[in-house]
Amino acid sequence: MKFTELNLNDALMKAIKRSGFEEATPIQAQTIPLAMAGKDVIGQAQTGTGKTAAFGLPILQQLDKHHKAIQAVIIEPTRELAIQTQEELFRLGRDEHAHVQVVYGGADIGRQIRSLKKTPEVLVGTPGRLLDHLKRKTIDLSQVQTVVLDEADEMLDMGFIQDIESILNYAVNRKQTLLFSATMPKPILRIGEKFMNDPEVVQIKAKELTADLIDQYFVRVKESEKFDTMCRLIDVQGPDLAVVFGRTKRRVDELTRGLQARGYNAAGIHGDLTQARRMTVLKRFKAGKLDILVATDVAARGLDISGVTHVYNYDIPQDPDSYVHRIGRTGRAGKNGISVTFVTPNELGYLRTIERLTKKKMSPLRPPTNDEALHGQLKQAKSQIEELMQSDLSKYGDDANELLENYSALDLAAALLKSLSKDNAAKVEITPEKPLPFKSGRSHRGHGRGHGHGARHGHFDNNRRKGRGKRNQARKSGRHDFVIKKKHKA
Ligand SMILES: Nc1ncnc2c1ncn2[C@@H]1O[C@H](COP(=O)(O)OP(=O)(O)OP(=O)(O)O)[C@@H](O)[C@H]1O
Ligand SMILES: [Mg+2]
């Protein structure tokens, strides 16, 4: 559908054009008119299909520029995602001078308070920091018309639900609630509906839950052989930009060090790093100055980094929804992507559970041999040399001649290839993680849903302890009637 059919104002049409969007995506075409009509909407569509603009455009269109108050709040599960959403809404609202601000944990609150004095019309934030400001009375949500829960299933899950309820209680005059996510488990959907007024549910029907553009593979491998296998696969596949997901923070640290030792340009991101460090790593990755981002599930949801060609699940996610989001970091906005999930023999049950949720079978991939890996590396080295050949090499002439007097051209070329390839002999030890508990692969969808999400939230907004307390509370009160399983801390 053309954006011109959506009755958006001229300023927004200009921003859409500038962004290079030609047609509205299906989720945008179906939810924008509903949201502009003031309806409550639950929107579910595959990763990378433009859900941010689907809620962002109607919000920007409906702003009352003469009213100096926060009119819309968008709640995001991670700091990075809050920043990204603020940036996208700022870009889209630039021509109508919309004032969009972001608040998140791990950053100087004094500075946030000072800039909040200018009263943004749209506020994006993480739950913990939003509540912090609300308690300090440094934000006023009483004039808020629209609240968005992006990654809604995550926001309504155990770790966040009470924070969300508290925030909603401050938005006393709220007229509209919008829920968006690529995954929407039924029990969570029902929780969401409690906060909504006769919501319209828009589910973009796709054959598969995962983005269509991602080719999904798995490799069966022993825990002790995983790291070498992944390195060889990276050599063979030669990703432009890759994200490697690990289950725990220790895992991410070890994988990062291991990849660096082997000569890969990698850096890690997880919840124990300072916010400044997290932002630096992400910025370098976005700018293409890093080839591999190693991450816990903190980077699984929502992040939109163009150019990610490969996602490697070094550890299989325990939670099928998390799989959908993780691999959704590639195959975005019409581009293709590849995902590879490493599975140890006793984790095959998890693989089948994931396939049942996504309605898509992963193709088995044979681990590459050392020779294939070397061949892959040399192919990349040769293309690097070709690039070098295009550059100005004149100032190296004299020294090159000197080398040619002592060595043959053949040996020199071989030495160059060697220096450009990676050191796959570097010994790397990755501490084995306790395998996931055995799963037969025969359990049904609906079982084991929504489990243990609280464990993931610690790194999102400094509310780890609170999150855990709430989870126990939720369990006692029996409010969440689906299975809760303990998950390793990301
Ligand atoms: N109509 C459009 N045409 C082309 N590109 C678009 C369009 N709408 C959004 N995009 C771009 O597509 C990319 C993905 O959008 P977005 O991050 O909103 O996806 P999403 O559906 O929220 O994904 P996720 O489920 O991973 O959060 C962004 O770079 C965005 O700018
Ligand atoms: Mg999104």
Mind sketching the topology for me?
Elements: H1 10-19, H2 26-36, E1 41-44, H3 51-62, E2 72-75, H4 79-93, E3 100-103, H5 109-116, E4 122-125, H6 127-136, E5 146-150, H7 152-155, H8 161-170, E6 176-181, H9 186-194, E7 200-203, E8 214-220, H10 226-237, E9 241-245, H11 249-261, E10 266-269, H12 275-286, E11 292-295, E12 308-313, H13 320-327, E13 337-343, H14 348-358, E14 363-364, H15 370-390, H16 397-406, H17 409-420, H18 454-461, H19 464-477
Parallel strand pairs: 1-6, 1-7, 2-4, 2-5, 3-4, 5-6, 8-13, 8-14, 9-11, 9-12, 10-11, 12-13
Helix pairs in contact: 2-3, 3-4, 6-8, 10-15, 13-14, 18-19
The structure holds adenosine-5'-triphosphate (ATP) and magnesium ion.
InterPro entries: DEAD/DEAH_box_helicase_dom, DEAD/DEAH_RhlB, DEAD_box_RNA_helicases, DEAD_helicase_CshA, Helicase_ATP-bd, Helicase_C-like, P-loop_NTPase, RNA-helicase_DEAD-box_CS
Function: DEAD-box RNA helicase possibly involved in RNA degradation. Unwinds dsRNA in both 5'- and 3'-directions, has RNA-dependent ATPase activity.
EC number: 3.6.4.13
Characterize the structure shown.
The protein is globular, with a radius of gyration of 24 Å. It is 43% helix and 13% strand. Residues 441-490 have low confidence and may be disordered. The strands form two sheets. Strands 3-4-2-5-6-1-7 form a seven-stranded parallel β-sheet, sandwiched between helices. It has a seven-stranded parallel β-sheet with strand order 10-11-9-12-13-8-14, sandwiched between helices. It folds into two domains: 3-208, 3-Layer(aba) Sandwich (Rossmann fold), CATH 3.40.50.300; 211-369 and 426-476, Rossmann fold, CATH 3.40.50. The chain has helices at residues 10-19, 26-36, 51-62, 79-93, 109-116, 127-136, 152-155, 161-170, 186-194, 226-237, 249-261, 275-286, 320-327, 348-358, 370-390, 397-406, 409-420, 454-461, 464-477; strands at residues 41-44, 72-75, 100-103, 122-125, 146-150, 176-181, 200-203, 214-220, 241-245, 266-269, 292-295, 308-313, 337-343, 363-364. The site of magnesium ion has 4 residues, from helix 3. Adenosine-5'-triphosphate binds at residues 19, 21, 24-25, 28, 47-53, 182, 302, 304, 328, 332-333. Residues 432-490 are annotated as: Disordered. A motif (Q motif) lies at residues 1-29.
